Amino acid sequence: MSKKWVYLFEEVEEAEKYAGSWDGVRGLLGGKGAGLADMTRAGLPVPPGFTITTEACNAFLANNQQFPEGMWEQTLEALRKIEEKTGKKFGDPSNPLLVSVRSGAKFSMPGMMDTVLNLGLNKETLEGLAKLTGNPRFAWDAYRRFVQLFGKIVMGVDGEKFEHVLDEWKAKTEGGQDTDLTTEMLQEIVKEFKRIIKEETGKDFPEDPYEQLKMAIAAVFNSWNGRRARDYRRINKIPDDLGTAVNIVTMVFGNMGWDSATGVAFTRNPSTGEKKLYGEYLANAQGEDVVAGIRTPKPIDELAKEMPEAYRELQEIADRLERHYKDMQDLEFTIERGKLYMLQTRTGKRTGLAAVKIAVDMVKEGLIDKATAVQRVDPNALDQLLHPMIDPNAEVQVIATGLPASPGAATGKVVFDADEAEELGNKGEKVILVRVETAPEDFHGMAAAQGFLTARGGMTSHAAVVARGMGKPCVAGAGDVLIDYEKRQFSANGVVVREGDYITIDGSTGRVILGQAPVVEPELTGDFATLMEWADEFRTMGVRANADIPRDARVARGFGAEGIGLCRTEHMFFEGDRIDAMREMILADTPEARRKALAKLLPLQRSDFAGLFREMDGYPVIIRTLDPPLHEFLPREKEEIEALAKKIGVPAQKIYDRIEQLHEFNPMLGFRGCRLGVTYPEITEMQARAIFEATVEVKKEGINVFPEVMIPLVSDVNELNLQAEIVHRVAKEVMEETGVEFEYKVGTMIELPRAALLADEIAQTAEFFSFGTNDLTQTTFGMSRDDAGRFLPLYVERKILPDDPFQVLDQKGVGKLVQMGTELGRKTRPDLEVGICGEHGGEPESVKFCYKVGLDYVSCSPYRVPIAKLAAAQAALGEAERDK
Amino acid sequence: MSKKWVYLFEEVEEAEKYAGSWDGVRGLLGGKGAGLADMTRAGLPVPPGFTITTEACNAFLANNQQFPEGMWEQTLEALRKIEEKTGKKFGDPSNPLLVSVRSGAKFSMPGMMDTVLNLGLNKETLEGLAKLTGNPRFAWDAYRRFVQLFGKIVMGVDGEKFEHVLDEWKAKTEGGQDTDLTTEMLQEIVKEFKRIIKEETGKDFPEDPYEQLKMAIAAVFNSWNGRRARDYRRINKIPDDLGTAVNIVTMVFGNMGWDSATGVAFTRNPSTGEKKLYGEYLANAQGEDVVAGIRTPKPIDELAKEMPEAYRELQEIADRLERHYKDMQDLEFTIERGKLYMLQTRTGKRTGLAAVKIAVDMVKEGLIDKATAVQRVDPNALDQLLHPMIDPNAEVQVIATGLPASPGAATGKVVFDADEAEELGNKGEKVILVRVETAPEDFHGMAAAQGFLTARGGMTSHAAVVARGMGKPCVAGAGDVLIDYEKRQFSANGVVVREGDYITIDGSTGRVILGQAPVVEPELTGDFATLMEWADEFRTMGVRANADIPRDARVARGFGAEGIGLCRTEHMFFEGDRIDAMREMILADTPEARRKALAKLLPLQRSDFAGLFREMDGYPVIIRTLDPPLHEFLPREKEEIEALAKKIGVPAQKIYDRIEQLHEFNPMLGFRGCRLGVTYPEITEMQARAIFEATVEVKKEGINVFPEVMIPLVSDVNELNLQAEIVHRVAKEVMEETGVEFEYKVGTMIELPRAALLADEIAQTAEFFSFGTNDLTQTTFGMSRDDAGRFLPLYVERKILPDDPFQVLDQKGVGKLVQMGTELGRKTRPDLEVGICGEHGGEPESVKFCYKVGLDYVSCSPYRVPIAKLAAAQAALGEAERDK
Predict the structure, then answer these.
(1) Could you tell me if B32 and B104 are in contact, meaning their C-beta atoms sit under 8 angstroms apart?
(2) For labeling, which of A518, A535, A603, B268 is most exposed (least CB within 10 Å)?
(3) In sequence order, what DSSP letters do the residues of B685-726 get, joined into one string?
């Protein structure tokens, strides 16, 4: 007996038994199939149907695109069962059974084949349908849709060719809507469609319903490996070997007249989280009309008036599903002549704002507990709440308003196509992609843009859905925006905006603003604050911020940072006149001359440090001694060099010589980090003095101050020893001079492989470690961040590496060194304080890794502190089984 | 009871019991003390004496320069014993005991306090000595020497001040020798010496013999931390915590008349190894006269005529000591009125040539076995035998001195650019390439030159590295060489050398010599060949060579290489017209255009590989695919760029653009290694084809060929997989096309920390590993070899690092990765072939580490093959306890 490849919706228990868990069922039947089966089990009105498993898909793809043995037979058998249930027969002109064929992977994925409706229609069954319904126009409309979708999706004909024909015919009608097309027109249209298909593919449109079904199933399977599906999986870290299931469902018709409708609904508002049925529908339409934005759908509220009974039932089902799944659901439904059918339920995607509100509300409603709420919110989604918003007090020129499809504000240059967006985006330019509508093939450009503006489409249009998924702002359906692709410009209420002009979009209000609007910082209040409080209840690992100046430290503290994990002192040297003293120091020939120049920097650094300490009252502040190569501080342009020469009174040639002398082939691996302090101990001496004098200064003000002096780029304990001796000596001197005692620590960055390998020796001197995973990644991979652009994108695209290791910590390689360094360090010094201050400290997966390895804290940019805190809380709560 | 700090020479058994071994005795009593004690035990004529231990020295230095408790009392007690033995009394005017005070560490060390003779003399004992010997002049001569040495060494007065006085007085005599000074003169001299001492130190010369002794002992202890002693220990890797012993020995007098003498002797010739007493002596003199070169000493042969009895006894003792220590000894002796006294025996230092001959001879004599002979020779010393040397007897005019960057001597005409060097070189002329610095584009000229002289750059500059790789002499960083490219000449210390003039460079010493100095060529023959044969009997680890061209491969094989461990294919691309095809490839915009350019390189590479295979008949040849960043292949100068543009028919702007595009901030961490092959698979494809077509070609000639294709800079197994797939596919294609089957392997360099950390995964694909320890050192330390010059010398000088890690493998850090990589790799693939191809492969300590870790082979430059083989043999024999 061959394997079971096909499950009827009612065979859900059998599937669960085979798969072992509900997550297993979702893997086997896909999210959509599992939802339909589950609703069927719950007695909800789901049309009869069945699912071909993801295993069948994988077998098909592995076996040269042959259906696995027994699959087709099982499909036919399942079809027989449906025929029994519905009393209709597949391919039978007298009472034809029509089906929809839909893909459905474990995780919902745009870019995969979506839906073929009305499959089973041909000349004969069409006639039967017309007779049966007494509605030839309906039958021809259904056929037109089927041929169009099948031609495009299954047979691969460019969809625009069909649209073009349809538009021409619609233009001939008075109303201009597709519902205005007559039966005769539809017949002509189908004829033209079939001609196009023959022309484009060389093949006739298949008349045999079984042939249609076979082709559709194969197309769904193959769509798993389509370019866009692969892109999506790459970006969203979905494994390639899951496969997709195929759902075959008895057709119900939302286009059977004005007592029929089709729509989508969320059980709560996916943008704001408001607890209220949210969605849109179209009367007398089929599913794809809603998403495609051909007619503008109506808000779901109106359904309550138009079809109150169906609406009531929908609301009831929505409540029931939410209680069942304990999460906000995304529903698809069709009303056929007044009767409601559920076609899908799945956990709904939502904005960060909505995720937070829904999680907090559901706790209040008693639906979930705090731990679940904390685990429910994707830390990355908080990013949306942490982005600057348009200053409400600013005067801005609003040139159009659309739907607030995905919140947040974005500014950028206008571009009109995805390729252009990608090109400029990769160059680091900020762009806003402006399209009449977006389509899955625009995905690469959307990934590179700051936000999207569309002239057509609703809250569930492609642009809106993708934007929310990416956490990017989107204004959709801004009807006043008239785009002229050829002239590469758009006009809106009389204002003409050309490609390259700046606009700002506000996805929270739907405003489209001319130019670059001023933005304000976000705040940690309301539900967000509540959720973060809960997170803090579960969190065990500390979260600090990387901040170089008091202003950043204040922001960080506002977001809940528990200290500073990295203050890069050199950033202070670039401000104002300080750079001159720095340059004088670099140009000095003797320790004395260097000391003289450094003496000018001492009071400035002291006051900077005092400022940081005040902001971080009660928390530790890690200050790193001078790190970058000295040539970074020297001027490059002739004029600047000559001006400097005059200012500090040295011959210009001397500056040129020093620049030449300091030139490095590989500055990343050059004369920097503690190598500077070892060679010029007077630099470390000055910095230690500034730190400790500032410590004394604020201590006298009553500030609780815990300075930690961090020596960078250590590769051997001997380097650290030399630097630590200086710091300890200066600390003693300052205590003696001022008579004030203070606590402090001396530690090191672990940012070179050798430091991690010899961490046991280094911990003999170091009182704390901070993993500098940026440089550790560069050296472990032998890959310069500045130069990797030439090959790293290809590496990520081709999955040679799962992620850009500068964004997501490479747990296998770099992480092995982090773990080894931590273990070795603690072997020597069990109370060693260990943290991370690379940019990975604010990336949720990396934060969870740090938790697993046992770090004491992570440190990240101020704006990512809440993200890190939430991720740390989730890590502490254990990996939750979450819907991606 | 206090610790035993003092051992009489006859207490050697007690010392041995305490120290546990003879090596322990040498540690406790120092080499000199141990030798004296051992000779005393053997009944040889050693004057009575005792040794204060190194433990006393360390206690003294640790305890604020206070003698440890009981030490002085034990010293006095030992002195009493000597008094008993000699019948003399310390400080007794009637029969004064005089002693010498000498330092003596475990390893002989210049720079430490050497000897104070005649200690115990003062006005009273002097008179006694004069009376006793009936020789007032002798007594005053002894006193003059004592005051002079004590003043200089113990009291720290500039020795020249004494010499000056002495010279003035000698000038007043007829003979002009110190032996011509009269008693009265000596009295005047001593008076002046004491005045100088008072003037310089503010202190009177101590009259109390016990005070003299105390001061001398303290001075010896302190000399352990003298600047020169510390420098010597740093350079010779002698630990700082050994301390020095102090030997106090009854004076015997070589200056008691013409029947007295003092001298040094080696039991065999330390330059040539000849088995014949070798040394020199002075009659009527004290020890320091011989070393100081005040009078010219006579060859030891003459002693046979002058004092035949003493000579015979000395020869007998020499033979006995050699038989006892089974090694060549370095002796000091004094003859007092015809009676021979032995004052020192220690293992003698020797040249590489002598080391080899003595080891081989002693085996033939039955004194040692082959294993001992192999262990006896320092592998580094062989370097001297492997390069042409300037005839040591020739008179040469040294015009400048630089760094000895690559050993050996070369003579040739001066040329100032690479093209010129190539042109003349191809005509068979011998040229020396003289450049401010060299760059990769000079490679063709370097290949054609006999050696290189650069004005700038260190031991790891491009010129130095290439030179060592090629086994050619190089003097680098000769700052006095001022090059004027325009006038085509250089000047050095006032000498102007024009293009075409002959110079000779000595890369072993750094000398730049005007004209053609006579040079002697190296050969692997005679004793050297014998020793290498013995080494091969014990050696278990393989030794291959790094060689890029057939000529180098031939040299390597001549020196005993067992295959090629690294062929850098890119070196082949710089020759002649090849660079144009390479550049065309780099400038190509499409895979097709690249393939076209690569097709031109294919036959050239194939013939290169065939040449290598022929030279290495029967041995494996590892060929690395393209490694360096592409910009290294592009021209830099305007003229060159424009010439290239014309030649290959592209606009010059395009070349400029590509150069700009390929610019990297950190080329070391950039677009290179397998990243090239992953991005442009057609390059790997071409190289694989060239390798396998060459394999088939030579196989048809009957050559035993084992190509191993090595993928560089792998950080993840996925990269290797992509490259290995190409290589396997091409291998299959070539086999099918030619009908010839062949063996081959695909493996990888392990040169990034991540590769070592994930070696278990990488070994799933790699059939062999080769540790590229040059790059692995750079990335593990985060230290660019090209840029480390600014801080690394300081690091080595201050012992922050024990060695330059680019010269001696950093076993603790980089070595940990080598070990980890080897173990992980073999866990996956137990028969994994593992080797090393960094420059460390020819450095003896590193070779021994490789043995310890279990590598299958090391690979090094052809000229270091014998060194690596000897080191590998020694590793297999186990660390020998050798005198440093």
Answers:
(1) yes
(2) A603
(3) HHHHHHHHHHHHHHHHTT---EEEEEE-S--SHHHHHHHHHH
Which is more confidently placed, B229 or B629? Answer: B629
Q: What is the DSSP string of B745-788?
A: EEEEEE-SHHHHHTHHHHTTT-SEEEE-HHHHHHHHHT--TTTG
Q: At what angle do helices A123-133 and A136-149 cross, to 10 degrees?
A: 140
What does the pLDDT average to over A481-489?
91
Nearest to A782 among B718, B752, B814 (CB): B752
Residues forming beta bridges with residue B101, ordered by sequence position: B116, B248
On the question of pLDDT at B294 being above 70, the answer is no
Q: Is the pLDDT of residue A490 over 60?
A: yes
B803 CA: distance to closest CA in chain A (Å): 13
Give the Å distances, CA to CA, from B450 to B431, B519, B861. 6, 13, 17
* Beta-bridge partners for A666: none
Q: Which of A57, A474, A674, A837 does the annotation list as catalytic?
A: A837
A413 to chain B, closest Cα gap in Å = 25
Least confident of B230-244, B245-259, B486-500, B629-643: B230-244
Assess whether A631 carries a catalytic annotation.
no
pLDDT, tens digit, 9 for 90 and up, residues A201-213: 999 999 999 999 9
* Complex ipTM over 0.85: no
pLDDT of residue A797: 79
Whole-angstrom distance, CA of residue A562 vs CA of residue A554: 11
Residue A486 burial by CB count (10 A; 0-12/13-18/19+): exposed, middle or buried? exposed
Whether residues A781 and B719 touch (CB distance < 8 A) is answered with no
For testing contact with chain A, the best of B626, B790, B816, B820 (most A CBs within 10 A)? B790
Kindly state the tokens that stand for A176: 């201009």
Residues of B in contact with A675 (CB under 8 A): 790-791
Using CA atoms, how far apart are residues B97 and B117, in angstroms rounded to an integer? 12
Q: Which residues of B are catalytic?
A: 462, 837
DSSP alpha helix (H) spans, A281-381: 287-292, 301-306, 308-325, 352-364, 370-376
Asked if A719's CB is within 8 angstroms of B666's CB, the reply is no
How much is the pLDDT for A460? Answer: 66
Cα–Cα distance list, B365 to A544, B318, B320, B373, B535 (Å):
74, 15, 14, 12, 19
**Substitution target from B665, B754, B818 for chain A, most A beta carbons within 10 A:** B754
Tokens 């141990």, located at residue: B34
What's the whole-number mean pLDDT along residues B674-685?
95
Give the C-alpha separation, A6 to A16, whole Å.
Answer: 13
Give which of B787, B811, B812, B816 to mutate to test A binding, by max A Cβ within 10 Å.
Answer: B787
Binned at pLDDT 50, 70 and 90, residue A858 comes out as very high
CA atoms within 13 A on the CB side of B544: 28
Facing residue for A716 by CB, picked from B667, B778, B801: B801
Q: Considering only CB atoms, which chain B residues are within 8 Å of A753?
A: 753, 779-780, 782, 813, 817
In B600-692, which ranges are E strands?
A: 620-624
The whole-angstrom distance between residue A814's C-alpha and the CA centroid of its chain comes to 24
CB contact under 8 A, B799 and A718: yes
pLDDT at residue A880, as a whole number: 46
For position A218, what pLDDT does the model report? 94
The β-bridge relationship of strands B96-97 and A857-860 is unpaired
The pLDDT of residue B882: 41
Q: What's the CA gap between A202 and B507, in Å, rounded?
A: 77
Residue closest to A480 by CA, chosen among A400, A396, A397? A400
With tokens 């060299």, the residue in question is B438
Residue among B666, B752, B813 minimizing CB distance to A667: B666
Could you confirm whether A674 is annotated as catalytic?
no
Alpha carbon of B852: minimum distance to chain A alpha carbons (Å) = 19
